[in-house]
Amino acid sequence: MGMYASGAASDSAQYNTVDLADVPVKLRTSWAQYSPYFPVAEYQSPPENCRITQAHLLQRHGARYPTASAGANIVTAVNKLKSAQNFTDSRLQFLRTHVYELGADDLVPYGARESELSGRVQFGRYSHLVTKDQLPFVRAAGSDRVILSATNWTAGFAKASNHLYSPVLSVIISEEAGQNNTLDTGGCPKIGSSTAQTNEWLLKYGPPIADRLNTQAPGAKLTPTDAYNLLSLCAFESVHQNRLSPFCNVFSQEEFEQFEYSGDLDKYYKTGYGQPLGPAQGIGYVNELLARLTGTPVRDNTKTNHTLTGSPVTFPLHRAIYADFSHDNEMVGIYAALGLFKQKVAPNPSSPDPNRNWLASQLVPFGARMVTEKLACGAEEYVRIFVNDARQPLEFCGGDKNGLCTLKAFVESQSYSRTDGNGDWAKCF
Question: Any idea which residues are catalytic in this one (predicted)?
């Protein structure tokens, strides 16, 4: 299952290194979906007349190595650079002794610590909801890195409680093809891709970077795609080493912001609003969330695994804390199904809007988390949502100045999911 099992982050000295302190904030928050976790805003406590009665955490796995295919592309680009007979820029001299040490797909120790820290934070925030008979109910999608993120989270939660409360990972949902899974993308054969949009942007910002590097490393013959892969290596190597990779010094802040926009486009057009069937990926989770919020059985005909949701053992209702562990593309689909981060104008593949709020680094960094809280305010029940600690306005259900919607209005606002996507899910086949 990999190296970083429960408790990998429990040593206090390790825990204190979780911030990649030597990497400037502006830089590490411009790595799109490969940014280390950071809170986008300061968490807001509920109004004085309200008390939180339920918390639903949806979290992306922590920092990982590149996927196997991405890693192979990165190695190709690095080897091209290394093939240069000489370097005309001193920032490339490190390549003479550089060794590529990254694995593939798995969680890195930094990613384990991100999840462990989240467990500590969630216990601190919601400890009043916990008793020995009311432990968090924890599920994970079936990738090793997701499973290990879940178990590191439970370890952090337990440690924060001085091991008075030790939640366990109760359900692992298979990611095998053909399996229904609300915590992973899939099950929609006719969904499109983001390739056209990301390629259009790459062909605008990539050639100048490749040309510059080819001048600095004569004979390397790098392509714009190679430039993208080398930019990504800055992020991957930094989270692997827990310090700034020398590849980061090869690029300017402006070039990293161009890289960031590639990630923004990818998420928007892969499973976000720019993909006609993207929001359909989130329907199943939203319907499970509605079931938990209302204490009623799940009603869903999309990606829900009915064997699991049909049993009180694998899908209990009336728990106070739920924690689900997932992937970035699935979380984006869930945001879109809910109606979060709607854009007045779709991101333009040839020109980024500097004022956009669709930023992959703020939506789905490594360890990203969405928390849906249910609150009792007097006799009425309310809902509010945080994404990476930033309270969402919830305009779609009449959110007030505190981001509060009545539970009834929130449920009614989710007609897209309650109708299995207004026909969208049927278009998947």
Answer: 61, 328
Tell me which of 226, 266, 328, 424 is the catalytic residue. 328
* 267 pLDDT higher than 50: yes
* pLDDT tens profile 359-378: 999 999 999 999 999 999 99
Rounded Cα distance between 284 and 194, Å, is 22
Q: Does the active-site annotation cover 328?
A: yes
Could you tell me where the DSSP H helices lie in 67-167?
Answer: 68-82, 109-126, 144-160
Could you tell me the residue ranges of all domains in the chain? 1-65+107-190+275-429, 67-104+192-270
226 is catalytic: no
Residue 304 C-alpha from the chain's centroid: 20
CA distance 53 to 406: 14
CA distance 168 to 165: 10
Give all strands (DSSP E) within 237-368, no chain letters: 321-326
State the pLDDT at residue 19.
64
Pairing of strands 137-141, 169-173: parallel
Residue 22 confidence (pLDDT): 76
The string of pLDDT tens digits covering residues 95-127 is 999 999 999 999 999 999 999 999 999 999 999
Which residue is it, tokens 């993208």? Answer: 228
Q: Give the separation between CA 69 and CA 349, rounded to whole angstroms.
A: 24
- Check 61, 226, 327, 424 and give the catalytic one: 61
Distance CA 381, CA 374 (A): 7
- Three-class SS state of 311: coil
